[in-house]
Amino acid sequence: MWRTMANYAVKNIEPIVMGADIRVRVFTLAPKEVIPWHFHGESTDHYFVLQGTLTIETGRPFEHHTLAVGERFKIRPCAAHRISNELESDCEFLLVQSVGKYDWHEVEPPEIP
User: Fold this and answer.
1) What mean pLDDT do residues 21-31 have?
2) pLDDT exceeds cutoff 60 at 81
3) pLDDT of residue 112
4) Do residues 95 and 58 make contact, with C-beta atoms less than 8 angstroms apart?
5) Is pLDDT of 6 > 70?
6) Which residues does 46 contact at the CB level (< 8 Å), separation at least 6?
7) pLDDT at residue 2 tops 50
8) Cα dist from 36 to 21, 33, 110, whole Å
9) Is-contact 58 81, C-beta < 8 A?
10) Which CATH architecture has domain 12-106?
11) DSSP string covering 69-108, please?
12) What are phi and psi of 97, to 5 degrees?
């Protein structure tokens, strides 16, 4: 079973563009903050690291990605993922979610090999 509404808190979320089929926001994660495992049914996530280091984990197959300033990563619809800041300083990233209706579905973590 999965939850259909976001249930997490992070240091800051600054909305830039909020439309019917696109969302652009700047997220700030404090040290050790996590956005739990989830997926989006229609929209693609585009992550752009602005400050610090961002960790993105994806499921099926499990992959662990560490992104530095200037790097980007794309997650397609229906792909489970988890976002975190594993370091002791803030992480800031631009998240562009498009094109498609926004939804958020929390899922159980995948089995990690």
Assistant:
1) 96
2) yes
3) 67
4) no
5) yes
6) 72, 73, 74, 95, 96, 97, 98
7) no
8) 23, 10, 12
9) yes
10) Sandwich (2.60)
11) TT-EEEE-TT--EEEE--SSS-EEEEEEEESS----EE-P
12) -115, 115
Cα(83)–Cα(37) distance, integer angstroms: 8
pLDDT tens, 88-107? Answer: 999 999 999 998 888 888 88
For the chain, the domains span 12-106
Which position has the token pair 């926001």? 25
- CA-wise closest residue to 16 among 4, 8, 24: 24
What's the token pair of residue 45? Answer: 């996530």
Paired tokens of 8: 């997490």
What single DSSP character describes residue 104?
Answer: -
Q: For the residues of 4-47, what is the DSSP string, one character each?
A: SS-----SEEEEEEE-SSEEEEEEEE-TT-EEEEEE-SSPEEEE
pLDDT at 1: 37
pLDDT for res 5: 58
Q: How far apart are CA 106 and CA 6, in angstroms?
A: 7
User: Structure tokens of 32?
Assistant: 């050790």
| Tokens 């926004």 -> residue | 102
27-42: average pLDDT = 95
